[in-house]
From TrEMBL:
It is found in: Secreted. One of its GO terms (biological process) is response to oxidative stress. Disulfide bonds join C48-C124, C81-C86, C130-C333, C207-C239. Its EC number is 1.11.1.7. Removal of H(2)O(2), oxidation of toxic reductants, biosynthesis and degradation of lignin, suberization, auxin catabolism, response to environmental stresses such as wounding, pathogen attack and oxidative stress. This is Peroxidase. Residues 36-337 form the Plant heme peroxidase family profile domain. It comes from the Eukaryota. It comes from Gossypium tomentosum (Hawaiian cotton). Its main location: secreted. Heme b binds at H200. InterPro entries: Haem_peroxidase (IPR002016), Haem_peroxidase_sf (IPR010255), Peroxidase_pln (IPR000823), Peroxidases_heam-ligand_BS (IPR019793), Secretory_peroxidase (IPR033905). Binds 1 heme b (iron(II)-protoporphyrin IX) group per subunit. Binds 2 calcium ions per subunit.
Length: 339
């Protein structure tokens, strides 16, 4: 398979990862082809030289007061890129937009993206896409939480439609086989899947996404036998069985080891190895020999995980992007431009 090379330094970083790993799986070491995006697009085209600096400044200012912005933007970017591609369609408002899909319950970060867009429109009107803002802001936020400052290629344009029927994000209780099939349908591979699930090292989820594991795993009327007894007891205290409509749906930490620190670490993989993953799809990483080996490598080496995360996030940001004359540059991230 033909591979497009990244910058020399970044390629060396990826190569050094695979020199230290013993996992015998076929994995991409570059962005997908064709790569339509450009490194520092707005500076190269002299349309908004300091666009990335403006975004970074806003993220840094906001992060000082609210560290939850890192997992919030990670989830928002995932919800965007894995549906119709990285076109910012998830940001659009509307009675039947992607925001209203059940899978996107609790999605947030929209007001923060609006703030960045307002700043950029004041300085470079009609130039920087909402899709690029979301990708760059996410990179900067997770970097502040401990992730690498991975390369974000730019030049995306914004989609003009958003429908909840297009949202096919899978249940967090799916098998590793179903999860891998889903990632592959987006042009990603087994290493990307195992790496990107590591974003669950921080953030929270609603009890409704794990209640099946706690009380009725696979319709057995019993809890998931793979869940460690101490974690099961702790989660049951926080998440009562769902018995009636309108019942509260509390939030629980995806990685109790991180909790309110919202720091990017490799402790997620250690929790998977000890059967303490909160989400079923995370625990499933032990049920395939390749994903198990990668999990063991990442649990033992934080730098291995960070390097792989840098590449996989860049690859995710390249899914079905709109460029050239496709789409548009929205003036307001919540609405398509008026014709």
């Amino acid at each position: 398979m033909r591979r497009e090379r990244l910058g020399f330094g970044f390629a060396l970083a990826v190569l050094s990862l695979w020199c230290t790993m013993e996992v015998a799986v076929e994995a991409a070491w570059s962005l997908q082809t064709p790569v339509k995006l450009v490194w520092h697009y707005y500076k190269v085209h002299n349309t908004c030289d300091y666009a990335e600096a403006y975004i970074r400044h806003q993220v840094e200012s906001f992060y000082k007061y609210d560290k939850t912005i890192a997992p919030t933007l990670l989830r928002l970017l995932y919800a965007d890129c894995f549906v119709d591609g990285c076109d910012a369609s998830v940001l659009l408002d509307g009675p039947n937009s992607e925001k209203t899909a059940p899978q996107n319950r609790g999605l947030a970060g929209f007001a923060f993206i609006d703030k960045i867009k307002t700043v950029l429109e004041a300085r470079c009107p009609g130039v920087v896409s909402c899709a690029d803002i979301l990708n760059l802001a996410t990179r900067d936020a997770v970097h502040l939480s401990g992730a690498p400052s991975y390369p974000v290629y730019t030049g995306r344009r914004d989609g003009m439609t958003s429908t909840k029927d297009s949202v096919d994000l899978p249940s967090p209780s799916i098998s590793w086989e179903a999860s891998l099939a889903y990632f592959r349908s987006r042009g990603l591979d087994l290493l990307d899947m195992t790496t990107l699930l590591g974003a669950h090292s921080m953030g929270r989820t609603h009890c409704s996404f794990i209640v099946d594991r706690l009380y009725n795993f696979n319709d057995t009327g019993k809890p998931d036998p793979s869940m460690k007894a101490s974690l099961l007891a702790a989660m049951r205290k926080l998440c009562p069985p769902k018995t009636k409509k309108g019942q509260p749906d509390p939030l629980v930490f995806l990685n109790p080891a991180s909790e309110s620190k919202y720091s990017f670490t490799n402790s997620y993989y250690s929790k998977v190895l000890t059967n303490e993953a909160v989400l079923g799809v995370d625990q499933q990483l032990l049920y395939n020999e390749d994903t198990k080996q990668i999990t063991e490598e990442f649990a033992a080496g934080f730098e291995d995980f960070r390097r792989s995360f840098a590449l996989s996030m860049s690859r995710m940001g390249n899914i079905n992007v709109l460029t050239g004359k496709e789409g548009e540059i929205r003036k307001n991230c919540r609405f398509p431009n008026k014709k």
